[in-house]
Amino acid sequence: MNNKTKKLLIISLAPTILKAGKYWSYSPYVNEMDLWFKYADQQRILSPFTYPEEVLMKPFGTKTIERYYIPFFAFNSFFNILKAIVFMPFIVFQMIRAMAWADHIHLRCPANVSLIACFVQILFPWKEKSTKYAGNWDPNSNQPVAYRMQQAILRHPFFTRNMKVLVYGDWPGETSNIHPFISATYYDTEKVPFIPKNYTQELVFVFAGMLVPGKRPLLTIQFIEQLNARGIPARLELFGDGPLMADVRAYITAHSLEEQITVHGNQDKTVVKAALLKAHFNILLSKSEGWPKAVAEGMFYGCLPVTTAVSCVSWMVGEGQRGIIVEPSLEQAVDHFIVVFTASDLNIMAEAALNWSQLYTYNRMEADIKSVLEGTFVSRV
Fold first, then answer.
1. GO molecular function of the protein, one example (predicted)?
2. What is the DSSP letter of 118?
3. How would DSSP label each residue in 59-116?
4. What residues contact 301, with CB distance under 8 A and at least 6 apart?
5. Which CATH number fits domain 188-357: 3.40.50.1360, 3.40.50.1950, 3.40.50.2000, 3.30.1460.10?
6. Which pTM value belongs to this model?
7. Contacts 24+ apart (CB under 8 A), 325-334
8. From start to end of 196-260, where are the E strands?
């Protein structure tokens, strides 16, 4: 019996660019989309075919993709708003045309494209639909108006008939169409048993992420600097690149932190994995997150997360049972870390972190995607 969705439509802001006879897009997005496409007979994407910024690209593995062209548009300046108004009739026409073709409509939120799609999909209440909300679903968080509008529509069962909305985290009081959903990086075959670590020796931390203001890499470096200043030997392995790289290197040099901080830049997944296996902690002091990928990846290998309470992080770390939640203030963060560090059995916490994260593998994510397209999905969070 063929349980595949016959015609799958993806609507996304991520550009679909034709290059050397293949369609290319943002690498992490491509990895997940190939899973969705695996369970459809026909695959089409509605997205911009240009993008104003350079992104890490790779080709889709699926060879039979077709695309609906729409121009890139934004609402971040008066000129861009005027352009968007001019483009809007064509964009809406393309969306109606694409949705009419599809058996299953899948939206990638939040974004400007998905904001328009949230309104247009109301015209197709009989169609099977799903939405992956890859941003911060926390109802109490401070978010742009466009994101709030998308959340308001997606939370309303009347406007999202036949739609499953997949969100990061398990939030109380949600409507029946909202389903917790977990992304994953590692496969079942990459699981490792828990190995207790010695927390009386020099503490090794891993930061893996973009060097951008939202990830607060400088605060992370200052956190390590302060631990050493307070007599707790600590070292940071810093992975990633971005616009703050020069600032990071300058701070390390100015404060003579070369013995405490090692800057690795972008590295292969296997290199980061090897570092996580050796480290005591992974650290992410973000301002905001959708899915805190770095936290989940560290937990998978028994790294105890040190993190701020953004997005679904508090839920991921069991409200502090399998991770250390700190404030985004340097003194408060260091103070609280030292309290937990000196009063808790960190190996028990780290083992709980590993056991939780290893529930959510790439294999399980693929099975969940398949069940969404078959209409049998039940959240197992």
1. glycosyltransferase activity
2. H
3. E-S-S-EEEEEE-----SSHHHHHHHHHHHHHHHHHHHHHHHH-SEEEEEESSHHHHH
4. 192, 273, 276, 277, 354
5. 3.40.50.2000
6. 0.90
7. 326/285, 328/216, 328/219, 328/285, 328/287, 330/219, 330/222, 330/223, 330/226, 331/226, 333/219, 333/223, 333/285, 334/223, 334/226, 334/227, 334/230
8. 203-208, 234-239
Write the CA distances from 258 to 213, 225, 238, 249, 253, integer angstroms. 22, 11, 12, 9, 7
Q: CA dist 114 to 22, 144, 204, 325, Å?
A: 24, 14, 41, 32
Q: Render pLDDT for 314-362 as a digit per residue (tens, 0 to 9).
A: 999 999 999 999 999 999 999 999 999 998 899 999 999 999 999 999 9
Q: What are phi and psi of 9, to 5 degrees?
A: -115, 130
Answer whether 100's CB lies under 8 Å from 126's CB: no
Q: To which H or E segment does residue 284 belong?
A: strand 281-284
Helices (H), 107-187: 112-120, 145-154
Distances (CA, A) of 133 to 1, 7, 244: 31, 21, 28
pLDDT higher than 90, residue 288: no
